[in-house]
Amino acid sequence: MKNNFNKEAENFSHFGKSFQEKFVQLLLEDRIFSEQICEVFDLSFLELKYLRLFAKKIIDHREKYNRQPSFSSMATILRSDLADEPDVIRQQVREYFVRIQSNGAVDDAEFIKDTSLEFCKKQKLKEAILESVELLQKSSFDEISSVINEALRLGSDNDFGYDYKVDFERRFERKERNPVATGWSLIDDLCRGGLGKGELGVVIAPTGAGKSMALVHLGAQAILEGKTVVHYTLELADTIVASRYDSCVTGVGLSDVYNFKDQIAEKVQEIPGELIVKEYPTKSASVGTLQNHLERIERAGKNVDLIIVDYGDLLRPRRSYKERRTELETIYEELRGVAQEFSCPVWTASQTNRSGLNAEVITMESISEAFNKCFVADFIFTVSRTIAHKNTNSGRFFIAKNRNGPDGLIFPIFMDPSKVKINVLQQTSETIEEIVTKSAKEQQITLKEKYKKFRSNEGA
Question: Containing domain of residue 12, as a range?
Protein backbone atom coordinates (compact mmCIF):
# COMPACT_ATOMS: atom_id res chain seq x y z
CA MET A 1 0.00 0.00 0.00
CA LYS A 2 2.74 2.43 0.95
CA ASN A 3 4.68 1.66 -2.23
CA ASN A 4 1.67 2.42 -4.40
CA PHE A 5 1.09 5.70 -2.58
CA ASN A 6 4.69 6.73 -2.99
CA LYS A 7 4.43 6.27 -6.76
CA GLU A 8 1.69 8.91 -6.94
CA ALA A 9 2.53 12.58 -7.50
CA GLU A 10 2.62 14.64 -4.32
CA ASN A 11 1.65 17.95 -5.94
CA PHE A 12 0.13 19.57 -9.03
CA SER A 13 3.43 19.60 -10.94
CA HIS A 14 2.34 16.91 -13.42
CA PHE A 15 -0.70 19.04 -14.36
CA GLY A 16 1.50 21.87 -15.60
CA LYS A 17 1.89 25.60 -14.95
CA SER A 18 -1.26 26.70 -16.82
CA PHE A 19 -3.42 24.31 -14.76
CA GLN A 20 -1.99 25.65 -11.49
CA GLU A 21 -2.48 29.28 -12.49
CA LYS A 22 -6.10 28.61 -13.44
CA PHE A 23 -6.64 26.72 -10.18
CA VAL A 24 -5.46 29.68 -8.08
CA GLN A 25 -7.61 32.05 -10.16
CA LEU A 26 -10.65 29.88 -9.37
CA LEU A 27 -9.59 29.83 -5.71
CA LEU A 28 -9.98 33.62 -5.76
CA GLU A 29 -13.04 34.00 -8.00
CA ASP A 30 -15.26 31.06 -7.09
CA ARG A 31 -16.40 31.25 -3.45
CA ILE A 32 -18.25 27.93 -3.46
CA PHE A 33 -15.32 26.06 -4.98
CA SER A 34 -12.91 27.80 -2.62
CA GLU A 35 -14.90 26.71 0.44
CA GLN A 36 -15.01 23.14 -0.83
CA ILE A 37 -11.38 22.74 -1.91
CA CYS A 38 -9.88 24.46 1.15
CA GLU A 39 -11.04 21.54 3.30
CA VAL A 40 -8.61 19.23 1.48
CA PHE A 41 -6.08 21.59 -0.14
CA ASP A 42 -2.53 22.07 1.06
CA LEU A 43 -0.27 24.88 -0.17
CA SER A 44 2.48 22.32 -0.81
CA PHE A 45 0.36 20.96 -3.68
CA LEU A 46 1.35 24.04 -5.71
CA GLU A 47 4.71 23.68 -7.38
CA LEU A 48 5.42 27.38 -8.01
CA LYS A 49 6.33 29.67 -5.11
CA TYR A 50 4.50 32.78 -6.38
CA LEU A 51 1.29 30.76 -6.69
CA ARG A 52 1.73 29.35 -3.18
CA LEU A 53 2.14 32.89 -1.87
CA PHE A 54 -0.90 34.16 -3.77
CA ALA A 55 -3.05 31.24 -2.59
CA LYS A 56 -1.87 31.75 1.00
CA LYS A 57 -3.08 35.36 0.92
CA ILE A 58 -6.52 34.16 -0.23
CA ILE A 59 -6.73 31.49 2.49
CA ASP A 60 -5.46 33.82 5.23
CA HIS A 61 -8.08 36.41 4.29
CA ARG A 62 -10.83 33.78 4.34
CA GLU A 63 -9.78 32.51 7.77
CA LYS A 64 -9.52 36.00 9.26
CA TYR A 65 -12.68 37.58 7.83
CA ASN A 66 -14.75 34.48 7.05
CA ARG A 67 -15.39 35.71 3.53
CA GLN A 68 -13.89 35.52 0.07
CA PRO A 69 -11.49 38.37 -0.82
CA SER A 70 -12.54 40.57 -3.73
CA PHE A 71 -10.18 41.71 -6.49
CA SER A 72 -9.91 45.11 -4.84
CA SER A 73 -9.07 43.47 -1.50
CA MET A 74 -6.37 41.38 -3.15
CA ALA A 75 -4.92 44.49 -4.80
CA THR A 76 -4.58 46.11 -1.35
CA ILE A 77 -3.08 42.94 0.16
CA LEU A 78 -0.52 42.61 -2.60
CA ARG A 79 0.53 46.24 -2.26
CA SER A 80 1.06 46.09 1.49
CA ASP A 81 1.82 42.50 2.56
CA LEU A 82 4.71 41.48 0.32
CA ALA A 83 7.49 43.60 1.81
CA ASP A 84 9.37 40.61 3.26
CA GLU A 85 9.35 38.66 -0.02
CA PRO A 86 12.22 38.66 -2.56
CA ASP A 87 11.87 41.16 -5.40
CA VAL A 88 11.52 38.38 -7.98
CA ILE A 89 8.61 36.75 -6.14
CA ARG A 90 6.86 40.09 -5.58
CA GLN A 91 7.15 40.84 -9.29
CA GLN A 92 5.82 37.40 -10.28
CA VAL A 93 2.84 37.70 -7.92
CA ARG A 94 1.86 41.12 -9.22
CA GLU A 95 2.29 40.14 -12.87
CA TYR A 96 0.11 37.08 -12.26
CA PHE A 97 -2.58 39.23 -10.62
CA VAL A 98 -2.63 41.56 -13.63
CA ARG A 99 -2.91 38.57 -16.00
CA ILE A 100 -5.91 36.96 -14.32
CA GLN A 101 -7.75 40.28 -14.26
CA SER A 102 -7.37 40.63 -18.02
CA ASN A 103 -7.88 36.92 -18.83
CA GLY A 104 -11.58 36.88 -17.99
CA ALA A 105 -13.34 33.70 -16.90
CA VAL A 106 -11.41 30.40 -16.84
CA ASP A 107 -12.44 28.60 -20.02
CA ASP A 108 -12.18 25.01 -18.71
CA ALA A 109 -13.20 25.76 -15.12
CA GLU A 110 -15.19 22.57 -14.51
CA PHE A 111 -12.27 20.37 -15.59
CA ILE A 112 -9.84 22.30 -13.35
CA LYS A 113 -12.19 22.07 -10.38
CA ASP A 114 -12.99 18.36 -10.82
CA THR A 115 -9.36 17.36 -11.38
CA SER A 116 -7.89 19.37 -8.50
CA LEU A 117 -10.63 18.30 -6.11
CA GLU A 118 -10.12 14.64 -6.96
CA PHE A 119 -6.36 14.97 -6.42
CA CYS A 120 -6.73 16.74 -3.06
CA LYS A 121 -9.33 14.29 -1.77
CA LYS A 122 -7.06 11.39 -2.72
CA GLN A 123 -4.23 12.93 -0.73
CA LYS A 124 -6.47 13.33 2.32
CA LEU A 125 -7.69 9.77 2.01
CA LYS A 126 -4.11 8.59 1.63
CA GLU A 127 -3.17 10.32 4.88
CA ALA A 128 -6.18 8.77 6.62
CA ILE A 129 -5.31 5.26 5.44
CA LEU A 130 -1.69 5.61 6.59
CA GLU A 131 -2.92 6.84 9.96
CA SER A 132 -5.33 3.90 10.12
CA VAL A 133 -2.47 1.44 9.72
CA GLU A 134 -1.04 2.62 13.04
CA LEU A 135 -4.50 2.60 14.67
CA LEU A 136 -5.06 -0.94 13.42
CA GLN A 137 -2.09 -2.12 15.47
CA LYS A 138 -3.81 -0.64 18.53
CA SER A 139 -7.14 -2.24 17.55
CA SER A 140 -8.78 1.20 17.62
CA PHE A 141 -11.54 0.20 15.18
CA ASP A 142 -13.95 2.98 16.09
CA GLU A 143 -11.22 5.55 15.67
CA ILE A 144 -10.27 4.04 12.29
CA SER A 145 -13.87 4.38 11.15
CA SER A 146 -13.96 7.98 12.31
CA VAL A 147 -10.71 8.90 10.56
CA ILE A 148 -11.74 7.30 7.24
CA ASN A 149 -15.26 8.77 7.31
CA GLU A 150 -13.88 12.24 8.06
CA ALA A 151 -11.47 11.98 5.12
CA LEU A 152 -14.32 10.94 2.82
CA ARG A 153 -16.49 13.80 4.05
CA LEU A 154 -13.88 16.51 3.50
CA GLY A 155 -14.12 18.23 0.15
CA SER A 156 -17.64 16.99 -0.51
CA ASP A 157 -20.17 19.29 -2.11
CA ASN A 158 -21.03 21.91 0.50
CA ASP A 159 -22.95 24.25 -1.75
CA PHE A 160 -26.14 25.04 0.16
CA GLY A 161 -27.26 27.42 -2.59
CA TYR A 162 -27.10 31.15 -3.25
CA ASP A 163 -26.53 32.97 0.04
CA TYR A 164 -28.67 36.11 -0.07
CA LYS A 165 -26.29 38.12 2.15
CA VAL A 166 -22.86 36.61 1.50
CA ASP A 167 -23.34 36.51 -2.28
CA PHE A 168 -24.79 40.01 -2.49
CA GLU A 169 -22.25 41.23 -5.06
CA ARG A 170 -23.05 38.40 -7.46
CA ARG A 171 -26.48 39.92 -8.09
CA PHE A 172 -24.81 42.93 -9.66
CA GLU A 173 -22.20 41.15 -11.75
CA ARG A 174 -22.66 41.55 -15.49
CA LYS A 175 -23.52 38.20 -17.03
CA GLU A 176 -21.54 37.67 -20.21
CA ARG A 177 -23.99 36.31 -22.81
CA ASN A 178 -21.58 36.83 -25.72
CA PRO A 179 -24.51 36.83 -28.15
CA VAL A 180 -24.10 35.78 -31.77
CA ALA A 181 -26.07 38.20 -33.95
CA THR A 182 -28.84 36.96 -36.25
CA GLY A 183 -28.00 39.53 -38.92
CA TRP A 184 -31.51 40.99 -38.65
CA SER A 185 -31.06 44.22 -36.71
CA LEU A 186 -34.75 44.41 -35.74
CA ILE A 187 -34.57 40.90 -34.24
CA ASP A 188 -31.20 41.50 -32.57
CA ASP A 189 -32.62 44.60 -30.88
CA LEU A 190 -35.37 42.42 -29.35
CA CYS A 191 -33.07 39.73 -27.94
CA ARG A 192 -30.20 41.94 -26.75
CA GLY A 193 -27.79 41.36 -29.59
CA GLY A 194 -28.70 37.84 -30.67
CA LEU A 195 -28.71 34.37 -29.15
CA GLY A 196 -26.37 34.12 -26.14
CA LYS A 197 -24.06 31.36 -24.97
CA GLY A 198 -25.91 28.44 -23.39
CA GLU A 199 -29.17 29.49 -25.08
CA LEU A 200 -31.42 27.52 -27.45
CA GLY A 201 -33.19 29.15 -30.38
CA VAL A 202 -35.90 27.43 -32.42
CA VAL A 203 -37.30 28.26 -35.87
CA ILE A 204 -40.82 26.89 -36.34
CA ALA A 205 -42.30 26.56 -39.82
CA PRO A 206 -44.29 24.14 -42.00
CA THR A 207 -42.56 22.09 -44.66
CA GLY A 208 -41.29 24.20 -47.54
CA ALA A 209 -41.60 27.51 -45.69
CA GLY A 210 -37.87 28.11 -45.28
CA LYS A 211 -36.67 26.59 -41.97
CA SER A 212 -33.40 25.41 -43.48
CA MET A 213 -32.95 28.71 -45.33
CA ALA A 214 -33.35 30.61 -42.05
CA LEU A 215 -30.79 28.38 -40.33
CA VAL A 216 -28.29 28.90 -43.18
CA HIS A 217 -28.80 32.67 -42.90
CA LEU A 218 -28.03 32.51 -39.15
CA GLY A 219 -24.89 30.44 -39.75
CA ALA A 220 -23.73 32.65 -42.64
CA GLN A 221 -24.09 35.78 -40.54
CA ALA A 222 -21.94 34.18 -37.81
CA ILE A 223 -19.05 33.15 -40.10
CA LEU A 224 -19.07 36.62 -41.69
CA GLU A 225 -18.48 37.95 -38.16
CA GLY A 226 -15.51 35.64 -37.65
CA LYS A 227 -17.27 32.91 -35.67
CA THR A 228 -16.73 29.15 -35.96
CA VAL A 229 -20.01 27.45 -36.88
CA VAL A 230 -20.81 23.74 -36.82
CA HIS A 231 -23.87 23.00 -38.96
CA TYR A 232 -25.47 19.56 -38.60
CA THR A 233 -27.75 18.46 -41.43
CA LEU A 234 -30.02 15.46 -41.06
CA GLU A 235 -32.11 16.03 -44.18
CA LEU A 236 -29.93 17.55 -46.92
CA ALA A 237 -26.51 16.55 -48.24
CA ASP A 238 -23.57 18.48 -46.80
CA THR A 239 -22.62 19.79 -50.25
CA ILE A 240 -26.15 21.16 -50.80
CA VAL A 241 -25.99 22.96 -47.45
CA ALA A 242 -22.54 24.34 -48.33
CA SER A 243 -23.90 25.59 -51.68
CA ARG A 244 -26.64 27.43 -49.83
CA TYR A 245 -23.98 29.13 -47.74
CA ASP A 246 -22.19 30.04 -51.00
CA SER A 247 -25.34 31.71 -52.26
CA CYS A 248 -26.11 33.43 -48.96
CA VAL A 249 -22.67 35.01 -48.47
CA THR A 250 -22.08 35.96 -52.12
CA GLY A 251 -25.56 36.81 -53.43
CA VAL A 252 -25.10 34.43 -56.36
CA GLY A 253 -28.30 32.52 -57.14
CA LEU A 254 -28.37 28.82 -56.31
CA SER A 255 -28.90 27.99 -59.98
CA ASP A 256 -25.74 29.93 -60.90
CA VAL A 257 -23.23 28.74 -58.30
CA TYR A 258 -21.56 26.37 -60.78
CA ASN A 259 -21.15 29.18 -63.31
CA PHE A 260 -19.45 31.45 -60.77
CA LYS A 261 -17.24 28.87 -59.09
CA ASP A 262 -14.02 30.93 -59.21
CA GLN A 263 -15.65 34.12 -57.89
CA ILE A 264 -17.30 32.20 -55.07
CA ALA A 265 -14.02 30.47 -54.15
CA GLU A 266 -12.30 33.85 -53.91
CA LYS A 267 -15.07 35.29 -51.72
CA VAL A 268 -15.12 32.22 -49.45
CA GLN A 269 -11.40 32.56 -48.74
CA GLU A 270 -12.00 36.12 -47.49
CA ILE A 271 -14.60 35.04 -44.92
CA PRO A 272 -13.07 35.54 -41.42
CA GLY A 273 -15.00 32.71 -39.75
CA GLU A 274 -15.03 28.94 -40.22
CA LEU A 275 -17.84 26.57 -41.17
CA ILE A 276 -17.99 22.82 -40.60
CA VAL A 277 -20.97 21.02 -42.16
CA LYS A 278 -21.56 17.52 -40.80
CA GLU A 279 -24.12 15.28 -42.46
CA TYR A 280 -25.93 12.45 -40.71
CA PRO A 281 -28.68 10.30 -42.24
CA THR A 282 -32.14 11.10 -40.88
CA LYS A 283 -32.76 9.54 -37.44
CA SER A 284 -29.25 8.05 -37.34
CA ALA A 285 -27.69 10.57 -34.93
CA SER A 286 -28.62 11.35 -31.33
CA VAL A 287 -27.66 14.38 -29.27
CA GLY A 288 -24.90 12.19 -27.84
CA THR A 289 -23.55 11.71 -31.37
CA LEU A 290 -23.34 15.48 -31.80
CA GLN A 291 -21.62 15.85 -28.42
CA ASN A 292 -18.94 13.32 -29.38
CA HIS A 293 -18.34 15.12 -32.66
CA LEU A 294 -18.10 18.52 -30.94
CA GLU A 295 -15.61 17.13 -28.43
CA ARG A 296 -13.42 15.88 -31.30
CA ILE A 297 -13.53 19.35 -32.85
CA GLU A 298 -12.47 20.95 -29.56
CA ARG A 299 -9.65 18.42 -29.11
CA ALA A 300 -8.42 19.51 -32.54
CA GLY A 301 -7.98 23.01 -31.12
CA LYS A 302 -11.12 24.71 -32.48
CA ASN A 303 -13.50 26.69 -30.27
CA VAL A 304 -17.10 26.32 -31.43
CA ASP A 305 -19.05 29.62 -31.38
CA LEU A 306 -22.40 28.50 -32.82
CA ILE A 307 -24.12 25.15 -33.34
CA ILE A 308 -26.91 24.65 -35.87
CA VAL A 309 -29.02 21.48 -36.00
CA ASP A 310 -31.22 21.07 -39.08
CA TYR A 311 -33.34 19.96 -37.49
CA GLY A 312 -34.03 18.72 -33.96
CA ASP A 313 -37.12 16.67 -34.85
CA LEU A 314 -34.94 14.44 -37.05
CA LEU A 315 -32.56 13.41 -34.27
CA ARG A 316 -32.75 9.94 -32.79
CA PRO A 317 -33.60 9.77 -29.06
CA ARG A 318 -30.98 8.09 -26.86
CA ARG A 319 -33.66 5.73 -25.60
CA SER A 320 -37.13 4.73 -26.73
CA TYR A 321 -40.25 6.13 -25.08
CA LYS A 322 -43.85 5.08 -25.39
CA GLU A 323 -44.89 8.38 -26.89
CA ARG A 324 -43.21 10.39 -29.64
CA ARG A 325 -43.87 13.66 -27.81
CA THR A 326 -41.78 12.49 -24.85
CA GLU A 327 -38.89 11.65 -27.18
CA LEU A 328 -39.04 15.11 -28.74
CA GLU A 329 -39.20 16.88 -25.38
CA THR A 330 -36.11 14.96 -24.26
CA ILE A 331 -34.21 15.77 -27.47
CA TYR A 332 -34.83 19.51 -27.09
CA GLU A 333 -33.86 19.42 -23.41
CA GLU A 334 -30.62 17.69 -24.41
CA LEU A 335 -29.96 20.27 -27.13
CA ARG A 336 -30.17 23.03 -24.57
CA GLY A 337 -27.80 20.98 -22.43
CA VAL A 338 -25.33 20.98 -25.36
CA ALA A 339 -25.60 24.78 -25.54
CA GLN A 340 -24.71 24.99 -21.85
CA GLU A 341 -21.97 22.35 -21.99
CA PHE A 342 -20.15 23.99 -24.92
CA SER A 343 -21.03 27.52 -23.76
CA CYS A 344 -22.37 28.70 -27.11
CA PRO A 345 -25.77 29.25 -28.76
CA VAL A 346 -27.64 26.42 -30.48
CA TRP A 347 -30.15 27.06 -33.27
CA THR A 348 -32.49 24.36 -34.48
CA ALA A 349 -35.87 24.11 -36.20
CA SER A 350 -39.18 22.37 -35.67
CA GLN A 351 -42.02 21.37 -37.97
CA THR A 352 -45.57 22.65 -37.55
CA ASN A 353 -48.64 20.47 -37.71
CA ARG A 354 -51.17 20.70 -40.55
CA SER A 355 -52.76 23.85 -39.17
CA GLY A 356 -49.60 25.76 -40.03
CA LEU A 357 -49.43 24.81 -43.70
CA ASN A 358 -51.24 27.87 -45.04
CA ALA A 359 -51.59 29.97 -41.87
CA GLU A 360 -51.19 33.74 -42.13
CA VAL A 361 -49.39 33.81 -38.76
CA ILE A 362 -48.03 30.68 -37.08
CA THR A 363 -48.19 30.59 -33.29
CA MET A 364 -46.79 27.94 -30.94
CA GLU A 365 -50.17 26.21 -31.02
CA SER A 366 -49.19 24.93 -34.46
CA ILE A 367 -46.02 23.20 -33.28
CA SER A 368 -45.83 19.56 -34.26
CA GLU A 369 -46.07 16.64 -31.83
CA ALA A 370 -44.69 18.06 -28.59
CA PHE A 371 -45.62 21.53 -27.39
CA ASN A 372 -43.47 21.01 -24.28
CA LYS A 373 -40.28 21.19 -26.33
CA CYS A 374 -40.89 24.95 -26.49
CA PHE A 375 -40.55 25.24 -22.72
CA VAL A 376 -36.75 24.85 -22.74
CA ALA A 377 -36.14 27.23 -25.67
CA ASP A 378 -34.91 30.77 -25.01
CA PHE A 379 -35.98 32.29 -28.32
CA ILE A 380 -38.59 31.06 -30.79
CA PHE A 381 -39.72 32.64 -34.02
CA THR A 382 -42.09 31.20 -36.60
CA VAL A 383 -42.01 31.57 -40.38
CA SER A 384 -45.36 31.71 -42.19
CA ARG A 385 -45.48 31.79 -45.99
CA THR A 386 -48.80 31.19 -47.71
CA ILE A 387 -49.03 30.51 -51.44
CA ALA A 388 -49.62 34.22 -51.98
CA HIS A 389 -46.48 35.01 -49.95
CA LYS A 390 -44.37 32.58 -51.97
CA ASN A 391 -45.52 34.18 -55.21
CA THR A 392 -44.32 37.58 -53.99
CA ASN A 393 -41.18 36.49 -52.07
CA SER A 394 -42.76 37.65 -48.82
CA GLY A 395 -43.90 36.17 -45.53
CA ARG A 396 -44.05 36.83 -41.80
CA PHE A 397 -41.93 36.23 -38.72
CA PHE A 398 -43.78 35.90 -35.43
CA ILE A 399 -41.74 36.24 -32.24
CA ALA A 400 -43.36 33.50 -30.18
CA LYS A 401 -40.97 33.44 -27.22
CA ASN A 402 -38.15 35.69 -26.04
CA ARG A 403 -36.54 35.30 -22.60
CA ASN A 404 -34.47 38.45 -23.12
CA GLY A 405 -37.13 40.85 -24.37
CA PRO A 406 -40.65 41.31 -25.72
CA ASP A 407 -42.49 38.69 -27.76
CA GLY A 408 -45.83 38.36 -29.55
CA LEU A 409 -44.55 40.67 -32.32
CA ILE A 410 -45.11 40.26 -36.07
CA PHE A 411 -42.56 41.27 -38.70
CA PRO A 412 -43.08 41.17 -42.47
CA ILE A 413 -40.16 39.55 -44.29
CA PHE A 414 -38.69 39.46 -47.77
CA MET A 415 -37.49 35.95 -48.64
CA ASP A 416 -35.85 35.01 -51.90
CA PRO A 417 -35.12 31.26 -51.68
CA SER A 418 -33.23 31.34 -54.99
CA LYS A 419 -30.47 33.38 -53.30
CA VAL A 420 -31.03 32.29 -49.65
CA LYS A 421 -31.81 35.91 -48.89
CA ILE A 422 -34.04 36.90 -45.96
CA ASN A 423 -34.68 40.48 -44.87
CA VAL A 424 -36.79 41.43 -41.85
CA LEU A 425 -38.91 44.55 -42.45
CA GLN A 426 -40.37 47.03 -40.00
CA GLN A 427 -42.83 45.59 -37.51
CA THR A 428 -46.50 45.66 -38.52
CA SER A 429 -49.12 47.28 -36.28
CA GLU A 430 -51.68 44.61 -37.17
CA THR A 431 -52.63 41.99 -34.61
CA ILE A 432 -52.90 38.29 -35.38
CA GLU A 433 -56.69 38.53 -35.26
CA GLU A 434 -56.74 41.47 -37.69
CA ILE A 435 -54.43 39.65 -40.12
CA VAL A 436 -56.50 36.47 -40.02
CA THR A 437 -59.80 38.41 -40.42
CA LYS A 438 -58.40 40.43 -43.31
CA SER A 439 -57.13 37.28 -45.01
CA ALA A 440 -60.50 35.58 -44.60
CA LYS A 441 -62.30 38.55 -46.19
CA GLU A 442 -59.83 38.60 -49.08
CA GLN A 443 -60.39 34.90 -49.65
CA GLN A 444 -64.18 35.40 -49.65
CA ILE A 445 -63.88 38.19 -52.23
CA THR A 446 -61.64 36.00 -54.40
CA LEU A 447 -64.07 33.08 -54.18
CA LYS A 448 -67.02 35.32 -55.06
CA GLU A 449 -65.20 36.66 -58.13
CA LYS A 450 -64.33 33.13 -59.24
CA TYR A 451 -67.93 32.08 -58.72
CA LYS A 452 -69.22 35.03 -60.79
CA LYS A 453 -66.84 34.22 -63.64
CA PHE A 454 -67.86 30.58 -63.47
CA ARG A 455 -71.59 31.51 -63.63
CA SER A 456 -71.06 33.93 -66.51
CA ASN A 457 -69.07 31.38 -68.47
CA GLU A 458 -71.71 28.77 -67.76
CA GLY A 459 -74.48 31.15 -69.03
CA ALA A 460 -72.53 31.87 -72.17
Answer: 2-170
